[in-house]
Amino acid sequence: MRLRRSVAKWLVVLGVLHGIVVCAGFFAPYDPAEQDRKSPYLPPMRVHVVDEEGHFHARPFVYAFRLRQGTFDQYEEDAARSYPLRFFVRGARYRLLGILPSRLHLFGAEDLRIYLLGTDAYGRDQLSRLVFGGQVSLLAGLLGAGITLSLGLCIGAVAGYYGGWRDDVLMRVAELFLALPWLYLLFAVRAFLPLTVRPLAAFFLIVAVIGEVGWARPARLVRAVVLSAKERDFVRAARGFGAKDVYLLRWHILPETGSVLLTQAAILVPQYVLAEMTLSFLGLGVPEPVPSWGNLLSSLQQYSVLVSYWWMYLPTLAMVPFFLGYLGLASSLQERGPAYKIERRSLGSLT
Amino acid sequence: MQTLIKVENLVKRYARRNPAGGQEELLALDGVSFEVLAGSTLAVVGESGSGKSTLALCLACLEEATSGSIWLEGKDICKVAEKERREMRPQIQMIFQDPANSLNPRWRTLEIVTEPLVLRGGISRDEMKKQVYALLGRVGLPAETAKRLPCELSGGQRQRLAIARVLALEPKVLILDEALSALDCSVQAQIANLLMELQGALGMTYVFITHDLGMAAHLADEIVVMNGGRIVERGRAEEVLREPREEITRRLVAAVPRLTRSPLAPIGR
Ligand SMILES: Nc1ncnc2c1ncn2[C@@H]1O[C@H](COP(=O)(O)OP(=O)(O)O)[C@@H](O)[C@H]1O
Ligand SMILES: [Mg+2]
Asked: What is the reported pLDDT for A58?
């Protein structure tokens, strides 16, 4: 199976983005939960290379903020206090990949906290929260998609391979699942659970709920592939050699579902990240202070934040490349599917 | 020679949904009976849609007949339990029309030929490998094809590969469902020669399914002609070709292209 160039391109994009999130501790300058109560709602700092007098500096620098005269929440740059950016600095402790203890950060400055995406109400660095929040949200998306696809694969395989009443029952249930208003059911499920749960428990709960919702569509696609695959002559031949059902499914039939599952994964991951964001945005997801993309955006529920602190929107812009990456991957995978099949069929008729 | 396969009143009914939404019944096999002598070749000839492939699948225990019996060495393979049937299947092997479809396109030649050995079990990996190369040699495939994918082989090579892997199971009966139809003339002759040679050496019984009466007459001892799921004519090969009794057989005789018979001449007996 040759990897198409467009697929490879999107895989590289996603690889880089996920690399940044996985190594959050290194790319984020600070601990995401660390508060700086003296500077709430600080706007993003600008990185300069040319100072007030028009001199060029090879090393980029930032100016410290000071309160504008006569206001209590308006900041302006203080040209008298400039701080050069330092790269590969030692800062807050973190564990790389959750195991390797380290203090190395990509950038920072001496004697000043740098906030490239501004701070929130508690003076927490939005950039650090964004990068660390990606770990929670993306893991929720990936795990959820994993659960959905496993369920879809098992159910679709049983329905397609065994057929008969199993097929009828499973497909009616699938239609039911497709018809239910899932967002509201998620709220209901969450409402039944205790108000405060431990962050880890809440996380797995959300993943499990989100993951079990979407099995119907992949199950139907898998079923269709299995239905056509089980009639193929190489499956018949293997059955003729004395193979059992499990063997046929494992070695001949399920490998045919690979490209469908891959495409579904690329569609489901961003969908589930959005689901996690929706729940956390409404305060039903992963509880604070754990950062997640939904938590990052939840302050936008307040009108004052909405109108006064525009940088609180910035995390949404940062998420766009992720969604574009996954959607691009999904569409180039879909492009490949039929082309690959036609290629194979025409080879067959060339005999 | 004694009878190896005896088919009695075999019926296969397919239910299918017609576009109007109702159930529609289709009689693919409508009371088929015949016998095959051990070590001989029976040709089943018929037009497309006459039920030949359905018959092949029923004989190979890959489809369940609606009613009727198939006796193999005194056992009715239509009546045994699924477990026993699974154990009987390796004795009746099948070669399909389109080798591009009967060989898993993701697997390499080596894996394809090893599969039946693995499923039968009982021998070590090393022995398997040795047997695989012996089988490839037996059907005239060079050893370097072992690493190739089916799509990298020619049509004739693929059909040789399909033959090699069924030989691994030492079947009593080999069903060839249009096994030569997808190949061009000279390759057809080569594969036909290989099949005759293997039959002579291993004493397999062939059920040779084709729409080409000329080819059937060359390869088979006996011919049955099928039409609409029934056997309409049967007899010794030369007789059927020389004096066809039924209209459908006359049509099939007329369809035999005279030219294709010359490259096949050395095969006839
Ligand atoms: N799985 C199936 N479901 C429904 N109808 C089938 C199925 N397989 C074959 N048939 C029908 O049975 C008839 C005989 O088909 P087949 O045995 O493939 O004929 P042949 O091999 O002689 O061309 C055809 O009309 C075909 O449409
Ligand atoms: Mg056929």
From this structure: 83
Domain residue spans in chain A?
A: 45-114, 130-335
CATH of residue B226's domain is 3.40.50.300
Q: How many domains does chain B have?
A: 1
Q: Using the structure block, give the residue that is written with the tokens 């993943």.
A: A207
> By residue range, what is the domain housing residue B88?
3-96+173-254
Query: Cα of B19 to ligand 1 centre, how many Å?
Result: 17
Q: Give domain status of residue B147, yes or no.
A: no
Token pair of A327 as six digits: 């959607």
Q: B75-98, pLDDT tens digit by residue?
A: 888 888 888 888 889 999 999 988
* Overall average pLDDT of the A150-162 stretch: 94
Quickly list DSSP for A204-238.
HHHHHHHHHHTTHHHHHHHHHHHHHHTTSHHHHHH
Is position B108 within any domain? no
From chain A, pick out residues whose CB is under 8 angstroms from the CB of B111.
none
* Range B167-174 average pLDDT: 92
Using an 8 Å CB-CB cutoff, list chain A residues near B102: 233-234, 236-237
ipTM: 0.88
Q: Quick check: is B34 in a domain?
A: yes
> Measured between CB atoms, which of A240, A347, A351 is closest to B93?
A240
The pTM for the full model equals 0.83
pLDDT at A343 over 50: no
Q: Is A101 exposed, middle or buried (0-12, 13-18, 19+ CB in 10 A)?
A: exposed
- Write out the H or E segment, with its range, that includes residue A83: strand A75-84
Nearest to A242 among B89, B100, B104 (CB): B89
* In-domain check, residue B27: yes
CATH code for the structural domain at A130-335: 1.10.3720.10
Chain A interface, best mutation among B101, B113, B165, B175, by max A CB count within 10 A: B101
A229 to chain B nearest CA, in Å? 11
Give percent of chain B above pLDDT 70: 95
**Closest alpha carbon within chain A to B105:** A344
Cα A189 versus chain centre, distance:
23
